[in-house]
């Protein structure tokens, strides 16, 4: 992932004058802000749920080695192969080695911020593998050759008109302006990739120690296509995403979509446990899980350890960080004392 923080002042001055960007970011005031507040208000015991979620994440982080070993043991028993990656370079090496082993020519991806962290696409392309992003926002950004601007809504910085122009240029089709038509066009462009890909690559919102499962929450069907159609599935996630039990997941899922997208629950909650078994109607022949440290263990035992509780809801990105203008009360934080 390219660091541009040293350009912040110059770029902020430039972007503050960008009319298109201002129009695009007004969308944050919809489901991202008001929708989130409304969904939280629907739960009279929200504070109790938030505290329970924070405790689950604390327990996992305090006993990280124990739960990771339990996860590896249970995932392996169910036919998955677990890989440990100390650095982003290790992730890229492992995925490229798997691609060579299974003679992968094309990989389809669902949204994965860890893969962005590792610049995985560049490594695979350098190894001769075609990579296709299938999340609509990530697909748009791949066409535009841009990085994501938000971990939940990666293309929130673009207007519908800009996407319409981009599709017309890259798809070589008449320009469409209605969102349903544009979405259909994207589906038509992506459908063939799902059935022709050799490898599917996903992230994991959580991994479950007691079952050895990975879990993703999505609002598009591409996540399930990526994890079930290709003969090889590779899930990549940070080691901090481990959760002790499926019951714990039930608590966290009550928090994550409310804060991430202003929904009671996402359209899809997908749990993957091992590769396809005899009698299964779908699923990969091979399932590999890569657990990335990437400096995370260096936070343990420090004042920054609480960062590892983050559930990646993105809510902290939707509010002004100035406490004078935005009161960070119970409606503005994902988990008590927990960075989003």
Model regions low in confidence, pLDDT < 50 over at least 5 residues: 322-340
Q: Count every beta strand, where a strand is a DSSP E run of 2 or more residues.
A: 10
- The average pLDDT is 91
**Rough shape?**
globular
Instruction: Note the main sheet.
Output: 6 strands, parallel
Helix content: 40-55%
What proportion strand?
Answer: 5-15%
| Helix and strand composition category | alpha/beta
Taking all Cα atoms into account, the compactness measure Rg is 20 Å
- Biggest sheet: strand arrangement: 1-10-7-4-2-3
| Straight-line distance between termini | 20 Å
Order of helices and strands: HHHHHEHEHHEHHHEEEHEEHEE
Total of helices: 13
Verbal overview:
- Helices cover 43% and strands 14% of the residues.
- The chain has helices at residues 8-16, 19-25, 30-41, 46-62, 64-77, 88-101, 113-118, 120-126, 136-144, 160-171, 179-196, 222-228, 246-260, and strands at residues 81-85, 106-109, 130-133, 199-202, 206-208, 213-218, 232-238, 242-243, 268-272, 286-292.
- A six-stranded parallel β-sheet has the order 1-10-7-4-2-3, sandwiched between helices.
- A hairpin with a 4-residue loop joins strand 5 (206-208) and strand 6 (213-218).
- The chain is globular, with a radius of gyration of 20 Å.
């Amino acid at each position: 992932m390219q660091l541009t923080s040293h350009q912040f002042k110059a770029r902020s001055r430039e972007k503050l004058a960008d009319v298109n960007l201002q129009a695009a970011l007004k969308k944050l005031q919809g489901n991202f802000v008001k929708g989130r507040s409304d969904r939280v208000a629907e739960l009279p015991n929200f504070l109790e749920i938030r505290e329970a979620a924070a405790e689950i994440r604390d327990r996992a982080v305090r006993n990280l080695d124990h739960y990771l070993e339990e996860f590896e043991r249970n995932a392996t028993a169910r036919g998955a192969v677990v890989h440990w990656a100390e650095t982003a370079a290790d992730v890229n090496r492992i995925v490229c080695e798997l691609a060579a082993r299974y003679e992968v020519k094309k990989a389809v991806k669902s949204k994965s911020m860890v893969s962005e962290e590792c610049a995985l696409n560049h490594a695979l392309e350098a190894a001769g593998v075609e990579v296709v992003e299938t999340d609509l926002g990530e697909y748009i950004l791949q066409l535009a050759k841009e990085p994501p601007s938000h971990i939940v809504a990666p293309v929130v910085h673009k207007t519908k008109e800009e996407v319409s122009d981009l599709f017309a240029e890259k798809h070589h089709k008449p320009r469409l302006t209605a969102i349903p038509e544009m979405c259909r066009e994207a589906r038509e462009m992506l459908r063939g990739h799902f059935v022709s890909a050799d490898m599917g690559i996903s992230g994991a919102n959580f991994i479950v120690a007691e079952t050895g499962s990975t879990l993703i929450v999505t609002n598009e069907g591409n996540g399930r296509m990526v994890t079930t159609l290709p003969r090889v599935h590779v899930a990549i996630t940070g080691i901090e995403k481990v959760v002790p039990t499926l019951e714990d997941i039930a608590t966290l899922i009550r928090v994550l979509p409310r804060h991430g997208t202003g929904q009671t629950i996402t359209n899809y909650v997908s749990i993957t446990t091992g590769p396809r078994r005899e009698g299964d109607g779908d699923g990969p022949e091979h399932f590999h899980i890569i657990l990335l440290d990437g400096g995370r263990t260096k936070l343990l035992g420090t004042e920054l350890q609480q960062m590892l509780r983050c559930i990646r809801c993105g809510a902290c990105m939707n509010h002004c960080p100035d406490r004078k203008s935005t009161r960070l009360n119970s409606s503005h934080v994902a988990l008590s004392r927990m960075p989003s």
